[in-house]
């Protein structure tokens, strides 16, 4: 397996790269470092490049005899996608179509694709299974759903074999504590709570307490980043073994409100986060909880981290060891 990992210097990408390396495959990280970190890539071959650079992409595929791609490179912030839709359509749709063109022109037809729970919008059933109606409430989710549909069409017409993984809320960090979540600016809940507890940011804003949930705050399904990463390893192996194109949810199957996550993080740290109730954030669905039965049954995936405090503890370990993230 010679694997090209776009976005391999990012949060989920760098954790997955580490797990892919353990399989013995050759891993080539391709990242433009706009949001990724060079020092999140420890031992793989690294190519600084953009998914719009067809020449460099093609050269990299040929030079390293690449036979599959794991495609993380994308914008992924729900809130920002509502304010800057052009960036999201351009990067996530046009950029991915470009990558597919270069792959197919160079005989690479295996792809693991980062999709999202945001493709569902506000489903009526919970936990969410893959086959329910997809009606995204935000631009980010729409860009990913467009690409899922395009890949299904490419699969029928051009022999593309892909597995799309619909992530719920990725969190935590590798136990080694040398890679973790470091977004600039940070917008994700768990790192923001930890930063607030550790006095690295201002007051934490709870976006809305009038949702139809048990305490009025949004419910999400939090999954450890290494459990997500392991699903990519399994998906890739399945494609090499002739698995047909498919789509899988990835979550733990338990929902936690924003307030419950804050309480759990405060218990883990023994500290209190300064917090206040703020207006709802545009594009946020009230409840997103996954059924991951399909990937368990088809690919034998299982999550190692099921306790939310354990998950938060791994994130806390990273934040304490690296108070300034990768810049430190
Ligand atoms: O300062 C904050 C930040 C977040 N939240 C709330 O905490 C929850 C989690 O928010 P995140 O920004 O951490 O994560 P999202 O659920 O918005 O998004 C995550 O899950 C999505 C799928 O639902 C996408 O995959 C996306 O890329 C990924 O970051 C949401 O209810 C949000 O409103 C706050 O209250 N305050």
Kindly describe this structure.
The structure is a single chain. With 328 residues, this protein is α/β, with parallel strands linked by helices. It has two domains: 198 residues, Rossmann fold (3-Layer(aba) Sandwich); 107 residues, UDP-galactose 4-epimerase, domain 1. The chain is built from ten helices and 14 strands. The strands form four sheets. It has a seven-stranded parallel β-sheet with strand order 3-2-1-4-5-6-11, sandwiched between helices. Strands 12-9-14 form a three-stranded mixed β-sheet. A two-stranded parallel sheet has the order 7-10. Helix 5 links the parallel strand 5 and strand 6. The mean pLDDT is 96. Galactose-uridine-5'-diphosphate binds next to helix 6 and strand 8.
Helices and strands, with pairings:
Blueprint: E1 2-6, H1 11-22, E2 26-31, E3 45-48, H2 54-63, E4 68-71, H3 78-83, H4 85-105, E5 110-116, H5 139-158, E6 161-167, E7 169-171, H6 189-197, E8 204-207, E9 219-220, E10 222-224, H7 225-240, E11 246-250, E12 256-257, H8 258-269, E13 275-278, E14 287-288, H9 293-299, H10 308-321
This protein binds galactose-uridine-5'-diphosphate.
Galactose-uridine-5'-diphosphate binds next to helix 6 and strand 8.
């Amino acid at each position: 397996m010679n694997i090209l990992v776009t976005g391999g210097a990012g949060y989920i990408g760098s954790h997955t790269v580490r797990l892919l390396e353990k399989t013995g495959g050759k891993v080539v990280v391709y990242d433009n470092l706009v949001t990724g970190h060079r020092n999140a890539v420890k031992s793989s071959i690294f190519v600084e490049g953009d998914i719009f650079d067809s020449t460099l992409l093609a050269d990299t595929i040929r030079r390293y005899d690449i036979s599959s791609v794991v495609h993380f490179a994308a914008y992924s912030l729900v809130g920002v996608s509502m304010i800057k839709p052009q960036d999201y359509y351009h990067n996530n749709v046009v950029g991915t179509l470009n990558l597919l063109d270069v792959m197919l022109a160079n005989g690479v037809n295996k792809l693991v694709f980062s999709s999202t729970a945001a493709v569902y919008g506000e489903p009526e059933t919970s936990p969410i299974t893959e086959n329910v109606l997809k009606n995204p409430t935000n631009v980010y989710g729409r860009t990913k759903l467009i690409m899922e549909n395009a890949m299904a069409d490419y699969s029928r017409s051009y022999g593309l074999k892909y597995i799309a993984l619909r992530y719920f809320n990725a969190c935590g960090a590798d136990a080694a504590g040398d890679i973790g979540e470091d977004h600039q600016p940070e917008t994700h809940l768990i790192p923001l709570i930890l930063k607030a507890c550790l006095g690295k940011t201002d007051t934490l804003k709870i976006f809305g307490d009038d949702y139809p949930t048990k305490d009025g705050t949004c419910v999400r399904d939090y999954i450890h980043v290494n459990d997500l990463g392991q699903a990519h390893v399994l998906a890739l192996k399945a494609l090499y073994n002739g698995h047909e194109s498919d789509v899988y949810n990835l979550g733990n199957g338990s929902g936690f409100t924003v307030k419950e996550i804050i309480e759990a993080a405060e218990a883990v740290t023994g500290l209190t986060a300064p917090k206040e109730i703020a207006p709802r954030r545009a594009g946020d669905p009230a409840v997103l909880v996954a059924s991951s039965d399909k990937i368990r049954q088809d690919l034998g995936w299982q999550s190692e981290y099921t306790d939310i405090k354990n998950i938060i503890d791994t994130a806390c370990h990273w934040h304490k060891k690296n108070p300034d993230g990768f810049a430190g």
